[in-house]
Amino acid sequence: MALSFARDIVGAVLLDAETISRRVAELGAEISRDYAGLEPVLVGVLRGTVFFLADLIRQITIPITVDFLAISSYSPNSSTGVVRITKDLDENIEGRHVLIIEDIIDTGLTLRYIVRTLEARRPASLNVCVLLDRPALRLVPIPVRYVGFTIPNQFVVGYGLDLWQKYRNLPYIAIVKREVLDGR
Length: 184
Known about the structure:
Structural class: alpha/beta
Strand content: 25-35%
Radius of gyration: 16 Å
Order of helices and strands: EHEHEEEHEEEEH
Low-confidence stretches: none
CATH class: Alpha Beta
Helix content: 10-25%
């Protein structure tokens, strides 16, 4: 059921809070096992990944560090085709094991830019963890080591994902009604 402030935009709940929580715990266990003894740097891509990253790091049982990267790839109304870093990492990642944490991958263009940018900084390893994979929109192949959920080609909000910078605070992931998107 949609929270009252989102009732007009939510068509259906795709992933409820319990399902998300269960999968995030599984991802945390996998990451803890795979990176045991390596002390990885988790790089959260702002802003959408904040909820996922916060829950994920509480499930990881090994020492980690966390840093953030912010990317702009869209103007307010449309894709510009230009990707740029608006907030860079604070830590030097050369020789470190880096795990990029992203909320959603669709075309792969922005994530490809992030991967190439970070690869140039010579980390010991570089992998990707995404909460949501929407492969129907993929334009470029991106190797993703950890995937929370594969979703259909639907616009979704909640758990960090937004529409017009709103609805990130929904505790679930919901499909936006088609008529809302058509009226944008």
